[in-house]
Amino acid sequence: xxxxxxxxxxxTILLVGIDQIxxxxxKSNLQDKNVNIGLISLEYSQNIGIAFGLAKDNTNTIILTGxxxxxxxxxFFIRQLKNIDIKTSIIISMILSGGIGNLxxxxxxxxxxxxxxxxxxxxxxxxxxFSDCLIVIGLILFVIFTFREFTNIKSGRFMEEQRKxxxx
Length: 168
Description:
- Helices cover 65% and strands 11% of the residues.
- It has helices at 2-29, 59-79, 86-109, 130-155, 158-167; strands at 34-37, 40-47, 112-117.
- It has a three-stranded antiparallel β-sheet.
- The N and C termini lie close together (9 Å).
- The mean pLDDT is 87.
């Protein structure tokens, strides 16, 4: 059980650190220029709203909502600690790290620092950042593994997998 908590803490700190280092670099070096890397370009953008630039006039509400969502994720992790495997701890850490990274931006910079532009691949796609990638990939993995778990329950493999989890 301690292994899961330590993993969650270390991975979350590491991922938030990587995110913030990238954003500091982008804010310091890319405000007036774009860097093209094949079909992707790196360019500074600040999003004061939420996904796709929505809710731009509600900064305090967005910050409060972010804090509540992060608290709910931590509460879920603590409450389900005995039932969560290492893989799920990593997934939760990804989602949590992305949320914390963007929340730090909102608190200290007034909006989220975005910099990955895939407009050459998908026209008019919003610019995003590493934290956004962590959240989206984490949620996709969570859905996939939850669906797989549901399938195992339905097929009868659930009890065997639960036994293995408790042996960890």
